[in-house]
Amino acid sequence: MLRGMSKRSAPLLLFALLSACAHTVEPTTVSWVTQAEAAPRTDALTAEDIVLMREVSDVELSPDAKLIAHVLRVPSALAEPGRAVSQIWLVDAAGKLEPRRFSPTGHSSWSPRWSPDGQRLAFLSKRPGDAHTQVYVLSIDGGEAEPLFAATSSIGAFEWSPDGKQVAYSTARARDAETAAHEAGRDWVVNEDGGTKTRLFAVDLSTGESRELVTSREHVIDFCWAPDSSRLAVRASEQASTDHTMMYSSLYTLEAKLGSAGAELKSLTKTAGKLGHMAWSPDGSQLAFLGAADIHDSTAGIVYVVPSGGGEARALTAGVEATGSWLDWADAGTVLLLAEQGTATTISAVAVAGGAPQALIDAGPICHELSYRAGKSASSRSWAKDGVLACVGDTSSHPREVFAGKLSTRRLTRTTVVNPSLLTRKLGAQEVVQWKAEDGLELEGVVIKPVDFQPGQRYPLAVLPHGGPEGVSLDGWTTRATYPAQLFAGRGYVVFMPNYRGSAGRGTAFAIADHQDLGGKEFTDVLAGIDHLVELGMVDAERVGMGGWSYGGYFSGLAATVYSDRFKAAMIAAAITNWISFTGTTEIEHENSLVHWKLWPWDDMTLAWERSPLAHIKQSKTAALIVHGQADTRVPTGQSLELYRGLAHLGVTTQLVMYPREGHGISENVHGLDFANRFLDWFDVYVKGEGATGE
């Protein structure tokens, strides 16, 4: 049972039906999955395994709920430096037929979208000879993929109209006057109002002719069709900057009947702060969306509903200790919600009439995205019996795969095995750990034990804090190149991934509990967790290191300076080291100051400086590995340079590594391999004390 969820029976009969179902996770009945999972785990996990790991995303159920289209990310070979290729695959939702590749070879394909009749699948791709990314379409029976229409600029997103007569699509296309000015050299930017806005179009599939739908010049972020194909719901902002799209977007509706002319967006409701996923009710009378409590809420995790004709939105889950990430309508009176809750995810039914959400699936994989088909008529209660879900999910033993199942069974079954070699790798046992903060606040996180863990023995500790701070560590697959958790377990470390105050997964109050106190109680939450592991007899308090990215890197910067006496080593990646200079150079200065600090630096320069790792470098004696992508605009490289130069000047053991072409993370395999091994080796040398590391 998770916080804020009630399993008491509700007026709807569907809840009575579902409450009779068990919550146990049964073994899969899919033969190829069963066979693969039976492989003995005898081999060590390597950094090469992680950077070459395949991963699924963007699941899309066919209209008859029999097939699941999904994207498979395939990394490039280490001998061929570069980024991954995306492929589209199909898998049988019932698990009777093995997955098959759908998209042609040789180039990336992504964003699969079924035609309303289920006979064709459209997707985005840029083939040799294409000047722009196009929408391609291919019959499910095979054949050659062809452009659905001739796009004159690269398409970012598209959606079929429910009647199959139109396709709405977005594209970042400059207007003619803007292009002419740029070509004439008049390309200056005034008051940071730069960036090409994304525009919204629709193509008449009977003629191939496109028309622009929005004439009021907003920057279009997201859109979805009304059930009768007459309107679109649109999320848009006045500017195209990252900060504005995150903090100042609004919801609108737009007339989009076949043959209609472009129009201005019509405001749907007043919102404040971040916005997320949205969906029309089956009859088109309402829109459900995810949004923030207010401008200072760090997550868009609350379910709202609003009449589609406009009006005041009603919050349905404001008091629930969860963070919504996806929603859809199960029927005219019920919204399906995927949410992070603690270290797990749940799928719940939220009654539009009110009442506590009812947990439908709260065991099984960690779900990251869903696709839902109602089974019969969404206006009836048949969804409880026949509604089908497809999910991108992972567990502590494997990365993201495709899962499917009916709501009536209350379980999801794994249908793909995209990384068979990982099933032979030895992994450390993973579990959820709970402890109390200094002020009594109950906290939790994820712990991985060393692969050959022996009770009673104390091990070195690798603390890997998540970013955000509104990120969250979940009890699923925890390992990637930037956070090589299981690789640390393979080298004999206990790994600790804490969910400190400010994390997602426990509602708005918990997410904003660090306001005006960044680097304060939230960091001592982590120290209390370390102390708890020491008290359990698992960890050697004299051999502790911390490493993380972004806000997790900020924590690691604090570990290396303010709390240097407690940490032997730190890996500080893409990190804020000086809150004052960061605010003046980041692309998210509003988001940072409004939803994280709830304070601007110039309102309290003393506090902003005091909470900066750079302010405390004179007390540092922690070996600091500092890492940054040279193309990072979220946290500019100056943050790492300031810290590195200060520590180096003071004679503190430090190393700075910059990765060309990388932004706020790592995407190239050779870079990922170097980073993971460098991170592990740094801790082996300075936490374990095993000798010098190379360049």
TrEMBL record:
Molecular function (Gene Ontology), one example: serine-type endopeptidase activity
PROSITE patterns tied to this protein: PROKAR_LIPOPROTEIN
Domain Peptidase S9 prolyl oligopeptidase catalytic per the UniProt entry, residue ranges: 485-688
Pfam families linked to this entry: PD40, Peptidase_S9
Cell wall biogenesis/degradation found in the keyword field: no
Oxidoreductase keyword on record: no
GO biological process: proteolysis
EC number(s) given by UniProt: 3.4.14.12
Key words, A-Z: Hydrolase, Protease, Serine protease, Signal
Gene3D superfamilies, sorted: alpha/beta hydrolase, TolB, C-terminal domain
Signal peptide per UniProt: 1-24
Protein name: Prolyl tripeptidyl peptidase
Species per Swiss-Prot/TrEMBL record: Enhygromyxa salina
